[in-house]
Amino acid sequence: MEEQSFQQRERLVEEITGYKFKNPDLLHQAFTHPSVPQNWASNDRMEYLGDSVLSVMIAKKYYFAYPDLSSKDLTDLRSVNVDTEKLARVAIKYNFHNHLRCQIQSFNEQVEVFRSATLEYPLHSFGCINSPKVLADIVEALIAAIYIDCNFSIDITWQAVKDMLQPLITPETLEIQPVTKIMQLCQKNKLKINIVDNWDKTREFECFVDGKSVAKGKSSQNKDTARNRAAYNAYEQVIENLRMKTIIKDH
């Protein structure tokens, strides 16, 4: 049974990346979570290496693709393309979770909650989703496995994984973090914004604009996610309010 799983894992990865492992044990280690009994080597150290390799590959791509971007803009672009949510999306796109050796009791539930949440934000939520790190770890560990197996070639590793990582976020699709976005909108339109922290009591943040409540955001797991959700919802509401005022004024 385990041998069959090995073969399925190898076929899946080869189909996705076009890369044939010389040492398949590296691939199987990449798909082994530390929760599995210690007679198996886990992907704990591999995801650390893969994170660094991916950052270098993305930095190199955007450095040459966008010669006019500042270092700050390049950093923002790199960060969103290597963050936990972006990589977790890659994992569920290719159903890597179905091939992970893992003994986390709530793992399947976490995957389904995350998968459902991504439907509301097709490209990236920019902070409004709780993303299971274990999913991102698979992708990082796989990148590390290829990097080690090909004798540490950045170019070969990039050729193997560049299509897998699509769609990459570009300057055209990069969005501002929700809290910054609502702050800038209110400042531009001379509106007073106040984001109230009720997370310790209700797991919510509430946004007030000119003293009126316009939106709430909730997350039982992560305070920053709750704040971002409130800001995101507030932005959508304020945009709608401004649009309605314009329509009324025009009439």
TrEMBL record:
Give the RNase III domain ranges: 10-151
SMART domains xrefs = RIBOc
**One cellular-component annotation, GO:** nucleus
Q: Does the keyword RNA-binding apply?
A: yes
One matching Pfam family: Ribonuclease_3
Q: Which InterPro entries does this chain map to?
A: dsRBD_dom, RNase_III_dom, RNase_III_sf
Q: Which UniProt keywords apply?
A: Endonuclease, Hydrolase, Magnesium, Metal-binding, Nuclease, RNA-binding
Q: Name one GO molecular function term.
A: metal ion binding
SUPFAM superfamilies named in the record: dsRNA-binding domain-like, RNase III domain-like
Q: Which domain of life is it from?
A: Eukaryota
Which BP terms does GO give this entry?
siRNA processing
Give cofactor(s), names only.
Answer: Mn(2+); Mg(2+)
Q: What is the lineage of its organism?
A: Eukaryota, Viridiplantae, Streptophyta, Embryophyta, Tracheophyta
For this entry, the protein name equals RNase III domain-containing protein
